[in-house]
User: Fold these one by one.
Assistant:
Number 1:
Amino acid sequence: MRTTLDLPESLFKHLKARAALEGRSLRDLVIELVERGLNTRETVNPQQRFLARPSVGGHSPLALPVAKLNNADLHDLISEDDDERARKLMAGG
């Protein structure tokens, strides 16, 4: 069945990057994550779960040379987002 969802941009970027890094389609990744979420018995505030996940900053997943990325590259991308979030929190916004 086909449907349309409005996702926050940062979540969409995170999903696209993860799918690309895993070499799979966005559709397959989303289906797996939804099924896993429906099968879990854990009760977690969805906003807390979303905020705890790193995103890949402002980089387009298609612009990244996925085959050449290593753990250090991914750490740098995640840290960029964490650094920006920390600056906003320290600035009171």
Note: Residues 24 and 78 are 21 Å apart (CA to CA).
Number 2:
Amino acid sequence: MRKISLWLFIFVFTAALARAQDAATQQQIDQLNGKLQDLIDAQAAQGKRLDALEKEIADLSDKVNTPAVSDAASRDDLKKLAEQVQEIDKKRQDDNDLVLKQIEKLGKISAAPGHKSPPIVPKTTEDNPTATNAGPQKGYDYPIASGDTISAIAKAYRAQGVKVTSDQILKANPGLNPNSLIVGKKIFIPDPNAK
């Protein structure tokens, strides 16, 4: 019985070993098949590249064998080119004149009544209940005109010597929406230098 068990054990062990070798062999065969397929694909790609190069060489050979065409410009060609350059220069000059006219119009618009420098009328925060500073502050009332922005108003006052910023104007007028200014509404412009 021991002999049969031993033979049975050897048989099972040998069969397991053979299966493991078959699996390893199959894996190696699969790897070799994959590499072989990669080589076949690479060879096909090389063949396509060679065909493209042969075609390009044939095209270049045809170009070399064709007679050279004169690339010198005739007198008529130069005359046409000169006329085209003059036409382009005329259009450039017309565009320049148009730009200058538009700039002049913009200058007139910025000097229009709605864009004049703001009137400087001294006021204090005692006269303006919406001002937020703790003590009385000196400044100016300004009626908002069409097209005004907080930064444009601040810039206009700075041009008159009142050193005020957009932030200072917004702080002096709580609840003022700088993106939606109401024409005719009076806002308070603080004068940080006034005492």
Note: Residues 53 and 59 are 10 Å apart (CA to CA).
Number 3:
Amino acid sequence: MGRPSKPIISKELVVRAALEVLDDEGIEGLTVQLVARKLGVKAPSLYYHFKGKSEMLEEIARTIQVEAIIPNLRDQGNWRDQLIELAVAVRASILRHPKAAPLLLQFFPRHLMLKYYDFWVNRYDIPAERKILVIEGVEKLTYGSALIGAMSRVTGTTPMPEFDEAQYPHLAEAVKANPMSDDQAFVETLKVFLYAC
């Protein structure tokens, strides 16, 4: 019997199944065979949509990026506060799939964000030479925070490890003086950065 003229599964369905396998098994445990089994098809069926595992991983990274629940972008209002809302949404999307977060290091889908960069850069009321610094800074804060948070969730550890307060008294004082959650600390860090621009 020949190959069907239409695929029996969609690319989106494959990516969703692969993301579920990845959430359970991690990147090392993700195989084309496991994804196919989850979908109730044979592994070769997946090659209709992807040349191999690497292409599938790239699509998963893209999906995590675009599934962020983006707030309504407005042309007026405080762009700094709106940019913070956007960063919080992207970080939350990544943290929904902590075992997949490292994929964003390998397959960072920056090309998907060009229209957003252009939208935001036009809104920044700061000198032109500082605008790219805002893009770079917000991305690094967002993805760095998400990767550390993801590692913490995967390993079951806290982002700041236990330490001897007598050995590190200044750090202990700083930690005690800041009772914020990771989410709150992320927002406050963005505020400190953006309002200093």
Note: The longest helix spans residues 128-155.
Number 4:
Amino acid sequence: MTIYTPKSLDQAKEIATLISDNPRDCLRLHAAFGAHFGGDMAITQNNAYMLKGKPSLNADAMSGVVRRSGICRFMVITSWDHEHCTYQCARNDEPEQIVHTFTYTFEMAKAQGLTRNRNWQQMPMQMLRARALTLMLRAVYPDAVSGIYSPDELADNMNMSDDERAQISADSLGEELRAPSQAPRAQTPPQQHRAIPSNPPADQHLPPAFSQTAPQDRPTPQHVAQRLLDVATLGKINSEDGSLEDTEWDEDKLNEVTERAAKVLSWTDLEVFATGLWTLTQEQGSADEVDELLKTIKSLGYSEAKLGIF
């Protein structure tokens, strides 16, 4: 419980006035999603959006709801580029051999008439990941997220300006939106499958593995943080049949680290998060989770001196 967790309606109104320019919407979002965040209005406000009277929850927050529900055995991105994003996941209440796979492609978005929108032209990878994630969550975990939609999903199907739609999508995905004047249509790559720059051209905290990657092709710090979290909470591999067993993380610790991952907005934040996650995984995780996290951190090019974790 925090100072932003109201004990009465009057307290909720007071907090809403303090943290939001639109207290009424803040109260409605808290009523819709507050229970998923321990009643904390500030955290709810940071992850939820009101679009023309319709409450929505960003894709990463939806995945957090599923993780905290206890029904998720694992969820992980297995393949991702400018053309598609593929997730795999499993439930704790299903046989271990059942693994669900979901892929969302640029062609699918095109068939739905979405790719004409500026958000899809400027940040296709981010949009593909969000759509693949929400598609999977609602299909496999309807008991946790049934009826919940992300802001970008609602925006793509609402009557609003392209600039407004793009800004809503960027905000919900933790991205920086490039102004139209910075990217004239004549200079856009032919396929328009380019993501937006999510960090300064010369960032001393950029993971070494991305140093030779064009800014528009890099994932965001929050996406990398989510990837590290997925690996750290993947579970233990059964040596007999190769299946994944439940993660051994304490629920409170898992909630804490999930919230921290959602707050990673810069490469500096990522370094701090990676160090903290490594420490917690050694305490909470299985040997398999520790090994996989170490491999993933090394794949980013981080050195011992940089993070001091090995």
Note: Residues 181-202 have pLDDT under 50 and may be disordered.
